[in-house]
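Hi there. Long-time user, first ticket. I'm pasting a complex I've been working with (about 470 residues overall). I'd like to know whether the download I got is complete or cut off, because the file seemed smaller than I expected. Thanks.
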Amino acid sequence: MFKRAKQSRVFQDVVDQIQEAILTKKLAPGTRLPAERDLKEMFNTSRGTLREALRVLEQKGLIEIKLGVAGGAIVKQIDTDPLMESLALLIQSGEVSLEHLSEFRIKIEGSLVELATERASPKDIEELERLQARARHCYDIQDWESFLKTDEAMHTYIGTMTRNPVFQFVQKSIHDNIHRYYQDFLPMNRERTLENLQDFDKIITAMKSKNGAAASAIITDHVQRFHDKMTGKRP
Amino acid sequence: MFKRAKQSRVFQDVVDQIQEAILTKKLAPGTRLPAERDLKEMFNTSRGTLREALRVLEQKGLIEIKLGVAGGAIVKQIDTDPLMESLALLIQSGEVSLEHLSEFRIKIEGSLVELATERASPKDIEELERLQARARHCYDIQDWESFLKTDEAMHTYIGTMTRNPVFQFVQKSIHDNIHRYYQDFLPMNRERTLENLQDFDKIITAMKSKNGAAASAIITDHVQRFHDKMTGKRP
DNA sequence: AAGAACAAAATGGTTTAACCATTAGGATTA
DNA sequence: TAATCCTAATGGTTAAACCATTTTGTTCTT
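Hi, the file is complete. Here it is re-exported in full:
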């Protein structure tokens, strides 16, 4: 029925107060908080306790701490980095496997591409073609590592095109984490890379003609093939 | 080209060492770390610095700290709570809106229900029917708050049925966050609640006959209607 | 005047030693 | 036997000092 009353953790109270101020924009991104020695006076606490609070806020991605004179705690623009770090922990701990991620991709990436197609601006298409050209160059000089990076950038950019930060986070974190362990499971070679290039050619073509359904179908198949290779159904 | 060399932050080194030990299962969940006064000796550091490290690990969700004798830092089973907290921060900061979340739901929840249908065990269906009965009871006594909680529990349970932690996290975090701000946008009433009940009746029926496509279609429509109401397209 | 070298000061990072608050478990008592 | 109290281990907090880094201004050299 009731929750246990708040334990007396002074630093938690400091965290809450500063977090509240940041979330309600009383402290805008870029703002520099007072020095630790001043903050400790304001909160009527010791410097050690205050620093524990700052450590927590830093870990949450709400502030960034710089050294030296003119240094201090600076309010950060909130981003998805802490989210991605948490996901990486789940993967590294084995709680989430690459197969799990890959299965999720199969279900989501088609919808994502469809949305991106609907909302694509001419500039977006240009950027995709620029990335695709770079990928082709990497293929030509057989630089698989750079190819993978470009591939990741393309997927991530398609996420951006949805104009929806949830999709953007999903896309970024999936590909960031998949690529981090890619080599262990599925080393790139000439054949796979070429297949990848051709798929993206088709996707960009479909996007240009605003054919979201087609683009979705192509990438879903693309992802499905990747999943099958990884899980060894078609080794 | 190069990253700046690691800054001398002793507590970060302590964090890394303990995190490494946890992720590689050298420290299993449930294990109790030595007392702070002992750890500080092992790492050859001061207690303050050590505590900053513990604070970070606690924030990451890797350990839990208990008070009193026989207390201390206990290795936690990693879960999705830190991920959900990060998402909540993004929402509270306005970086992600409920409309963004809702749009994401429309695209994903159909696939999720389809997967859940494929993998549903008889026990799962029983559990869903139990929850549905509870929801009906809440409807009968017009307890909208409990109804919402039960509704959230059903969605979350369907996530569990996918047997894929990624879907589980997505479902949990979406509904946890949507319901947190539900009342502000869309207060429940007799009509909406009844509609909700009927939709779930259909979904469970479709699941029982292993008709994933039908279940998917029903919930997608359900979510779409919710989204339209919230964004005011059909007020 | 321009640039290089140096010095000063502010700030975060760390250390030490002490005391307070909480809690499990044993000792005591009714 | 059961309730109560005491003890000791452990996390939480405080205080004062010193170290390390970095910006900024000053001085010296050419």
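A couple of notes from our side: Chain A has two domains: 10-75, 81-230. The CA atoms of residues 150 and 184 of chain A lie 19 Å apart.
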